[in-house]
Amino acid sequence: MVYILFLCLVQGIGECLPISSSAHLYLLSFFGGYPPTSHEIEAILHLGSLVALCAFLAKPLWCMIKGTLKTLVTFRMTDGFAMSLIIVFATLPAIFFGFIVKRYVHMPHTILSIGIASVVFGVLLLLADLTGRKAEGKVNLSSAMCIGFAQILAFIPGASRFGVCLTMARFLDIQRWPATQFSFMLAIPTILGAVVLSVWDVQQAGNLMTLLPFVPAILMTVVISLVVLYGLKWYVARYSYMPFAIYRILLGFGLIGFAYRMF
After folding, report:
1. Contact yes or no for 39/201 (Cβ under 8 A)
2. What per-residue confidence (pLDDT) applies to 1?
3. What counts of helices (H) and strands (E) characterise the chain?
4. Does residue 179 lie within any of the structural domains?
5. What mean pLDDT is reported for the chain?
6. How far is C-alpha 60 from the chain's CA centre?
7. Which residue positions in the chain have pLDDT lower than 70?
């Protein structure tokens, strides 16, 4: 039970901040001596994050749904339908590349790979947040596609899906909160895909019913994620992402040093 609590905490915090939840889950397993997360655990953690994001973004998501329905009925373009199209098109690169990675590429998490990724993407986030002070950019199809292609980098162990999307958005001079919100909106179809794949793997193994005892863990992940999301919204309105970038850089150098000593 303590292990599950730690997993929920790491997932709830890591998925909602630009620090890579998968990397921290691996570090928890490595340094804590816990077994690697199973397909069942991955399913419930991703499901918790998905529910939290949908609840947190309920208002813009509802606007997208209403706009899409109105467009389908009246055949007139609406802002909600336009945003829905932008999300769909921006998600396609990750779906295509994710299929290739799932089938043909094996990119395991290691201390060294996470350390290098943390330093590289920490530096990029720091530069993007500093150079994006003008914040004159907007989320449109072209900027969304750039962010969508950047999301491919999230398949690198330790990269952080939220982090790479946020970094690209800031490089495009999009304001911190719109960049943050769009990165989270782009996460919904991506995490949904991860949930479906994890549940499918569990079903193929004949262990679908084993997910039922983990319902409290799903709720726990939802609550933790929502607290972090609302806290981040308050924080972003006042401060920069510099502390998160510095944390990633320091963590990365620490892990690289640890990996060097291991060899």
Report:
1. yes
2. 67
3. 11, 0
4. yes
5. 89
6. 18
7. 1, 38-40, 133-136, 205-213
